[in-house]
Amino acid sequence: MPLDSVRFAILGPVRVWRAGQELSLGRPQERALLALLLVRAGQPAAVHDIVTALWGPNPPHSAVNVVRRHVGTLRRLLEPGLPTRSEGRWLHRDAGGYRLVTDSDSLDLLHFRRLREEARQAAADGAYQGAVELLTQALALWQGPVASGIPPETRAHLALDALEHEYLTAVREAADAALHAGVPDAVLPVLRSAAADHPLDEPLLARLILALAGTGLRPEALTTYQAVSARLADELGIDPGPELRDAHRAVLAGAPAPAAGAEPRPAARTAAHPVPVQLPHELPVFTGRRAELDQALALFADDARTAGTVVIGGMAGVGKTTLAVHLAHRIAGRFPDGQLYVNLRGFDPSGAIMEPSEAVRGFLDALGVPPERIPRHVDAQTALYRSVLAGRRVLVLLDNARDTDQIRPLLPGTPGCLTIVTSRNELSGLVAAHAAHRLTLRPFDADQARAFLVRRLGSERVTAEPSAVDEITRLCAGLPLALACVAARAAAHPHFPLSAVAAELREAHGSLDAFARTDTSADVGTVFSWSSRVLTPEAARLFRLLALHPGPDFTAPAAAALAGLPVRRARLLLAELSGAHLISEHAPGRHTFHDLLRAHAAELVHAEHPEAERRTAAHRLYQHYAHTAHAAGALLAPNGDPVPQPAPADVQDVPPEPLADDHHALAWLTAEHPVLLAVLDAAAGSGHDRLACLLAWSLEPYFDRRGHWHDGLAAQRTALDAALRLADRALETRGMRGLARAEGRLGLHELSRPRLDRALAMAAELGDAIGRANTHRSLGWESEQQGDLAGALRHNQLALDLFRAVGHQAAEAGVLNSVGWYHSQLGEHREALRHCFRALTLLQELGDRYGQAATWDSIAYAYHHLGRHPQALLGYRNALALYRELGVPYMEAETLSRMGDTHLATGDLPGARASWQQARDLFTALGHPGADRVAARLAGQQGHEQEEHVGPA
After folding, report:
1. pLDDT at 675 over 80
2. Nearest Cα to 531, choosing from 504, 503, 571, 513?
3. Which of 179-193, 329-343, 683-697, 758-772 has the lowest mean pLDDT?
4. HSE-up (13 A, CA, CB side) for residue 17
5. How would you classify the pairing of strands 309-313 and 437-440?
6. What string of H, E and C letters represents the secondary structure of 483-530?
7. Which of 135, 398, 724, 812 could potentially form a cystine with 803 if both were Cys, beta carbons 3.0 to 4.6 Å apart?
8. Residue 161 has pLDDT above 60, yes or no
9. pLDDT by residue (tens digit) across 51-73?
């Protein structure tokens, strides 16, 4: 019996229709749960987030059971007659929480986002009238405040600010498209309404002024500008920003709207953007595939101006990635704006398939988008990614994709970019919907296989034994991966006749049932089994154990931990495995499996190693990463929220990476970033909950330093879930602090502030003075974000008293600077200097260079406001030297901006301009909105100079 169609609405009152009939949504908590799931738009909501949303910081002990009952009620509401405890079609258990299955046809929020994306594509193609029509449809879906009707105490936990931001962005985009299309009257009503609700939103008001003038209402446009200027001065104490001033000048000049057909300003372009070069190394012995290569190159005969998408398909081991990488290197020069690469792990035997959001975030990072500008939702991330690529020529290689849904968010949205996709699946949806060109690889025939072996073994040896070559080709089913393993064995023993190699292969027995195919007559697992049997016993054991590694690649120290061996010995064994083509070294010191070989190793490790031995090996691996991450985190943030030391481990069995200083720590964390995320999930999913907590908390300084706040949020959620499973109140309190800080970094203050309040109460109950101090410290930052500087100072003073009471000098030093900074922000500059100089002395004794840089900046700021400008400049120079040494461009730009103010105060106009220009360039390279702020200072100063040099007529 077919399922009834179901539609959901969240853009206004929460509503549901089944088979065209609106449903009654029952009790308030059930409506609130549904609202939370709808806001997540197909992403899972963790159980602890649901509990917090429904009950706030003090849930009842039965909360989780009540949530389960609500879930069951919702399932039966959506699917009457659903048996008890059945999951059904719509509401699934997922990732430690629940996920409502929705798409753009069933949820108005996703329909809104799809229309916005189509409108952006239309605008990028110059079809501004079409963009206006699409955005008008999108905005019409909003029937009032999001999730209206839900109790206010619950709405505070739903992260609705981000959705309101999406609405305002769509209004601005509609206004831009309408102005370009010459139809500003089409958006004037919605602009008026949005401006009335957001009377301090300068970009929105600038567009309202232009639209009013464009519809002939020039007097009202000028009156609106005057009213906005007065409101900004009265409520914020500021003058209108660049966008408002530009709109005002345009109205005065009589040209309020851009000329028809004028190019819109790209949404996320920067003057100086990095050029990513991410392609893997090309195989030096590439051979064969001439016809397929010529077919692909023919697609780009016109200089790739109509480049779109190429799908390289075929069975596992047939050489899809090798051809894709070779092709990409051949044509990379045609894409001067760079090359992006990602292994989507679509068929990874471990099941660690990459989510599109993870891939998009990685691409945005490579393209130079600062983390704070990356939205939380994958649809918005995709839109930003396409905006960044607009007008650029970039080659994108998506390797090992599972299906069209995984690929679609990663496709560029404008012509000029080329996407190469490899997949075992046909991806017919991609071919049909995106006009992708498909190349299907088949196993080598006899001639191609012979040429392959000649390239690796030499013509003389292959020609001498044609029968043996034919047998090897047959036993390998013509698959390049299997042939490479056999060729490696033969090359390692140049005096072995190929007939002997063929005989060994014939007599071997193996299995790879997970990859059995009907289109090959050979058991390719036999080739892999034979290859692993000719290894030394130690190398064969390591090959099997490496299947337990959850990450995309591994290093010698990680392999040593898995096998309980010295690193030097593990490195030699990895070289043996690489020589046998069972693993590959895709980057210096970093090795990986083909997923067929990983699957084969997984079969072997489960067949030959009992569960207790496998669990012990995995525990050694998790300890290796936990110990090294703990040391790295302490180097990056010596005065940060302390992380308990992992359980002592045998140095020989679990060798941590040697990290000499914070530079080495940052380099290790950067290289291991995707591995650490996989290890964290694997540890949490296999009962190693304490190690999962410690690993996540150790990574917090790295995520914060690099701005990987989305990954930080996911990691802290995993840690808190693990702490709750352990039923350890101390770990739970620490986990709540970590998650709250991650939420705060992403602007989720409606979640982070209540969580910190609860963490403070729990730390007090436990008598944990350091926990209380660190919570006050975090509450201070939260207060600053909400404009409560007095509250920020008060929380940091409380933290300082607690750190002093327990003798935690490193933390005391950092908080002393924070106390000084907030004194200065409140105008108490002499008191600020007293605290900051004490902080500086302690930080120098501790060797904390990052803390020293921040403190020199605070000292310089206080001196500037006391009129002691030479001392301020000295402080800024000291801060800059340290930030540059540490590689922290955002903080360097902030210091340069303030340094320019000090130069200006001394009358040194060239010095001010030089500092501001450097700051602007750094902000621009980061894609940070600070660039506009500094550019406005430069423009204002230039205008002032021009006024001073105007002589009499």
Report:
1. yes
2. 504
3. 329-343
4. 12
5. parallel
6. HHHHHHHHHHCCCCCHHHHHHHHHHCCCCCHHHCCCCCCCCHHHHHHH
7. 812
8. no
9. 877 887 677 878 888 888 888 88
